[in-house]
Every structure is written in structure tokens, then in C-alpha cells.
Amino acid sequence: MVECCIAEDKELCFLYSSKLLELIMKKYTYAILVILDKYGKMRFNEIQRKIKGLTQRTLSIRLKELEKAKLVKREVDSSEPIKVYYSITTEGKAVKNALQILISLINLLDNNKDAYLC
């Protein structure tokens, strides 16, 4: 563990998970969170259809990562046929909103927009 870099006010320091930060910055994480926030509960193929270039494999991996991080919730409807739904959690909404605020701030400071966040 790395020591806090603030000399006299160590209570201002806090630990964070680098794994969660890496997940947030992975391709399609933001897109998945935004889609689930807008449309609510969705099935796997519905999510995939909404995001260009997203493969089944990548979506499967990303959803498992997001579920493990408690940003997305997986629900199984046991009626016949069995259906699986994904939805954004409160924590997932907070992460999505924080990313949008950061992007808005970056856009205010730099008018040279050259990429979309996916």
C-alpha cells in the first residue's frame, strides 16, 4: 500500500480501488451504464443492439465485471422461458453521473472535442 502524500492533513487522504477505476475507464462501460440508466431493465441482446461494435463476448465480460463491482444488477426471471435482465444500481448511476460531470467540465475547459466516450 502506498502512503498518503498529504503531509499534515492525512484525514484528507482516502484509499480507492484501482481495479474499479480501471473498469470505469474500459471501453463500453460508460455506454452500458448510460443505456441501462435510460431504458431501465434490459435483456442481453437489447443492450447489445443499442451499442455499435459491442460483441457478445465483450458485453458478457463487461456485464460480469459491472455486476461484481455492484454497478449493475442481474435478475433472473424463472418463468418459462427463463429470462435474464440487467439494470443499473444506485452506485452505477452515481458513477455514470460523476463521469458525465467530469466530461462536461473537460468540455468547458477544452473546446477541441475529438472523441466520444464509450
Summarize the structure.
By secondary structure, the chain is mainly α. It is built from five helices and two strands.
Core attributes:
mainly alpha; transcription regulation; HTH hxlR-type domain-containing protein; 5 helices; Arc Repressor Mutant, subunit A; single chain; HTH_HxlR; 118 residues; two-stranded antiparallel sheet; WH-like_DNA-bd_sf
The major sheet is characterized as: 2 strands, antiparallel
N- and C-termini, Cα separation = 31 Å
How big is the Rg?
17 Å
What's the name of the CATH homologous superfamily of the domain at 19-96? Winged helix-like DNA-binding domain superfamily/Winged helix DNA-binding domain
Number of helices: 5
Assign the structural class, choosing from mainly alpha, mainly beta, alpha/beta, alpha+beta, or little secondary structure: mainly alpha
Number of strands: 2
What is the global morphology?
A: globular
Q: Would you list the SSEs in sequence order as H and E? A: HHHHEEH
Identify the CATH architecture of the domain at 19-96.
Orthogonal Bundle
Q: Give the integer mean of the pLDDT values.
A: 90
CATH level-3 fold name of the domain at 19-96: Arc Repressor Mutant, subunit A
Order of strands in the sheet with the most strands? 1-2
Q: In CATH, what is the class of the domain at 19-96?
A: Mainly Alpha
Low-confidence stretches: none
Task: Estimate percent helicity.
Answer: 40-55%
Which band does the percent of strand residues land in? 5-15%
Multimeric organization: single chain
